[in-house]
Every structure is written in C-alpha cells, then in structure tokens.
Amino acid sequence: MPRRSLAREAAFQVLYKDDLNPPSAPAVDVAYLRERLDEDDLVEFATQLVAGVRNHREKIDASIGRVAENWSLDRMPPTDRNLLRLGVYELLHTDTPPKAAVNEAIELAKRFGGAQSGQFINGILDRLMHTDPNIDTAAEDTDEEDAAAEGTLPEAPTGSPQPVERPIRIKRKTETPGSD
C-alpha cells in the first residue's frame, strides 16, 4: 500500500472514532498516529487531514448535503460519512489532485465499508468534483483530452513509475421496452 494511503487510513480511523465517541485530545490522536505510521512526514500528513476535517467539518458536511440526493448525513453509515468527509476535505482544501483524492476514498471504502460503499462514495465525490467551482479539474481533464486527440499518451515522468489513479464510473444498464 502506498505510504500516503496508510496515512489516510490512519486519519480515517481517528475521524471514525471521533464520530462514534467524544473527540479525544489531539495529543492522544498524535500518539495513535505515531504508533500506526513509522515516518514523521506521514504522521504530519495524517495529522493535517484530521485537523482539517475537524476545523472545516460544517462546510464539509454542507458540501456533502448539497450533492447527496435523498441522503442525510445522519442516515449514512459512519464509515461512509467519514470517508466522504476525508475525501471532501482533500478535494477542497489540499493540493491532492481531485481524481487521486476520489480514488483514495473509494479504495478505503472498499476496505472498510459495505458492499456498495465504493460506488456510493464515488457517486457523491464525483458529483461534488463536477459541481463545486472551488475544485479545479481543468488541468487533469485537459491533459487527458489533449492526449486522446493526438492519439498519444502523456509523457511518463522520469524516475520510478507511479500508478495511475482514476475513479470508477458506474453506468447503469438501461432496458429498452419490448426487449428481453
């Protein structure tokens, strides 16, 4: 598992704990993160994620509420609710590429959520990504569109290869009347 994915997982676990229990002192959370993560930069990243979600929770919850049709936060399973909070925080308040933030949330949902959690998280974050003017997806889309138009792939970065992270898009099969 990539290093920052481990930090996101640990941050999610702290947020999940907060949701079900009274929040603990920041020192307790940092101690937990240090126990789980073996590198200072990962502890710092996870700490920033937890602090960011806590500090922006009202705005994050409002953003989720705007795009979660027929779902209130109270009705969502705590796992999905906190993965959405983490994903929305990354989309709105960090320099993580939007598609990477969505994919990371989906992967955590597959590991910790229910059978449909990955699809649910993908749907909500994808809708937010395409409707919120504060999320800049233009740079990512332009690179892919240019490559597709030219029939080429973007040039690979030098150094060790990096995995390409893309959200899963679910299309429902539509039935045509009279066809069986």
In short, what is this structure?
This protein has 180 residues and is mainly alpha-helical. It has helices at 3-20, 26-36, 40-55, 57-67, 78-93, 98-112, 117-131, 138-150.
What topology does this entry show?
Elements: H1 3-20, H2 26-36, H3 40-55, H4 57-67, H5 78-93, H6 98-112, H7 117-131, H8 138-150
Helix pairs in contact: 1-2, 1-3, 1-5, 2-3, 3-5, 4-5, 4-7, 5-6, 5-7, 6-7
Overall CATH architecture:
Orthogonal Bundle
Runs in which pLDDT lies below 50 for 5 or more consecutive residues are 142-166
CATH superfamily grouping: NusB-like
The CATH topology, please? Answer: N-utilizing Substance Protein B Homolog, Chain A
Q: Number of helix segments?
A: 8
Radius of gyration: 18 Å
User: Distance between termini?
Assistant: 44 Å
Strand residue content: under 5%
The top-level CATH class is: Mainly Alpha
Order of helices and strands: HHHHHHHH
Helix content: 55-70%
Bulk shape: globular
* Total number of beta strands: 0
Average of per-residue pLDDT values? 82
Structural class call reads mainly alpha
What number of domains? 1
Sheet with the most strands?
none
